[in-house]
Amino acid sequence: MPYIPHTAEDVRAMLDRIGVKSIDDLFDEIPKDLRIDSLPGVPAALSEMEVARLVSARAAADGRPLNFIGAGAYEHHIPAPVWALATRGEIYSAYTPYQAEASQGTLQIMYEYQSMIAGLTAMDVSNASLYDGASALAEACLMSVRAHRRSKSARILVPTTVNPTWRKVARVITEGQGLVLEEMPFCAEDGTTIPKSLARYDGQDITAIIIQQPNFFGQLEDVDALTRWARAHGALIIAAVNPVSLALLSPPGEWGDGGADIACGEAQPFGVPLSSGGPYVGFMATRLEHVRQMPGRIAGCTVDLDGKRGFTLTLQAREQHIRRGKATSNICTNQGLLMTAATIYLSLLGPVGLERVASACVARTAELVSALAGLPGVRAAFTGPRFHEAVLQLDRPVGQVLDSLAAEGIIGGHDLARDYPELGHALLVCATETRTVEDIAAYGRALGRVLGRQAAA
Amino acid sequence: MKQVEPLIFELSRSGRGATAQHPPAAAAEIPGKFRRRRRPALPEVSELQVVRHYTRLSQMNYSIDTQFYPLGSCTMKYNPRACNSLAMLPEFLGRHPLAPVSTGQGFMACMFELQEMLKAVTGMAGVSLTPMAGAQGEFTGVAMIRAYHRARGDLARNEIIVPDAAHGTNPATATMCGMKIREIASQPDGDVDLAALDAALSPATAGIMLTNPCTLGVFERRITQIARKVHDAGGLLYYDGANLNAILGKVRPGEMEFDAIHMNLHKTFSTPHGGGGPGSGAVGVGPRLLPYLPVPIVGRDGGHYRWLDERDLPDSIGRLSAFMGNAGVLLRAYVYMRILGAEGMRRVGEYSTLNANYLMARLREAGFDAAYPSRRASHEFIITLKRQARELDVNAMDFAKRLLDYGYHAPTTYFPLLVPECLLIEPTETETREELDGFVEALAAIQREAETDAPMVKGAPHTLPVRRLDDVRAAKQLDVAWKPAGA
Predict the structure, then answer these.
(1) pTM of the shown model
(2) Does A452 lie in the same domain as A326?
(3) Contact B353 A55 (CB under 8 A)
């Protein structure tokens, strides 16, 4: 019996102690007509060895192609200690630290994580993580409505340079509470939001504006100008930021005059593998004045009966298990294991290492753009500074090019046709510190071959 | 075990670093106006310091791998190591979520089969794996119920009925979906009060959220009647899968006529709790709600797997995560289910119920009061310590804290809210009889201590890295982030 330790003798003794004849008797309160006696559709058990063989063969069939996609999930080097430590049983198999005295490890890691996120974003306080970047943005929208008591409109401006899937998720999650997410166009030249385009909202009740930095195209937004407009017009600022970029780029807490109100995003780049999209780790930080409107677990530093420093979950009066229908969110778990990985990652990289990662991302992406945009039929779609992604314009539909590249073992980027039909044959590419000069050259050669072959065909 | 571990920031020295992890320096061309002016306050420590620090912190945790962890409603059972090692195969870890499906057929085959197995164990017509936690699964369920009524033009249905024993996430979810909450009482025997249900049902009823067995640790015996009443009133039934472990392979939400369910894969299917996540809250639906399932879902055309998205399911409530949900957690659940197989699934329900009933019987023999003594335990049960609180001034929290000294994680305390001084105890199927016996002896010993030396029990724990913490100070003198000196 996999993972069940009972001997026949155990079962007999236990049933005797309960005073029943069989295990089935323990289910006698369940109406007979509801009970089932088999599970068709579930295969028979396999041994660990058999499952390992099956699953390993499937993994091997998927292979390890060379990846040039970002679009919200980024391939970075993951230092060996990160998962060796995070999968220690004491971390991996613990739960939410309800018993603080028996969970000081998890609680101190939460506190360290919160400190790192607050430091990176230059905000006062961080929570102990949310599910992922998309849901963190949705929660930030809901939070801005709670935090901005004078605003009655629940209108939030969302530039279309914000990750399109995150926008969809934010819509699904906030719809029930009547939020209005209004989309704003971007500049066709440099792929960023035009601060002047905000003038049409002057004098209107706008609850908040979302600013993504770098934006979905990898381009750098004029965050200071956008922040100043929002401040001047009484709207809160929700910053959606790539956390690696914060080693180089101005942090949300220092944008414009006075900074953003809420910073959120996806911390997957901090030691969390791509893993087909999850589990990842959303982050959220805010100003002290808004902390009681922030969703999610928060660890706080306090003292014990002897005056010794210790950590505990705090501000729980915001949460569902206390406030039930009046909670800030229904969120119950955070992403504890991934938050732990992120904390270990940041400890290993430190300020210097993270800055090196960020700089290498910028440099490799610039090299990638020059390698690809020099090919016939390929050009960079936008001018202006960028971080570690770029939009390329091809002279033909992107999908078939990507399929041909995949056949050569290269994942060539993300096709923007569905989300941005106005951009024509647009391809979003990414290079992090993990892509070498040789990787980039290999992509250039392969793309040249594919385009030449298709042109000839 | 009285360790003191400094903060990682307190170990930091300017100029130190885990330099094997630093990529070579590169020039980044970023104009000055976009640049950060001061480096962030991250620690500067060596790799060994990092390894030692987080190893030591891990040692300050109780966990399933080190302790019996009978936290009620959380299903803290063994997380098989095979699930972790196979989900962490390098090809799975390295796969980008937006990579073409031609490069992910192996992964998608696992996800497709997982969907099929989850349908089979729940008796539902369709499954989506995307919700990232139980609470998001609940959100999905209520959002689908709302979409169903809307599609029928039934716009007045804006109330969700929730029993008073429900998890806090239930009413919080209903609120998030813009619903009003109608709370109904439980009877003294733990079942839903049908008269209260009748009174709550109306043309405004969108649905009801039920956990069965409920958080009181008993199976709702009149579930068929409840389902009929709610359906007759035009509402739908939502099954909170928090306690699915209790009935796995014995009875299914489908036969109980639920329209939407979520499963906590981190409970029933043994994926790790990770210090509070990641969870995974896959949802299942009956025929009425099939069109509204969240996307993406794995579909199969012949022998080829592909993502079903908004184009395939135009009435879908949409997306809940940036990609497909917690894929790595789903892989762990898949491996677990393949190792258990159909017979293993049935044993989960059987042996978790056996362990709970045995533990309840033994604790009653030891003089403790079960909250529902006339009922069978499901996979969990409640002990109430209101007598001890009244007679000895030693309450449920004191017992819980003293249990930590005996090397056991405490059960869930003070939940459900309607049983005073309660311990909600869930042993799970993976514990031995000896472990359960040891737990009974510990609680009996604490009872004796409470009778002879109450102040000692009230001062517990005594052997952990810290003693009881000042929660009031934590909230009043808020310190939630370390700040460098002078900042």
Answers:
(1) 0.98
(2) no
(3) no
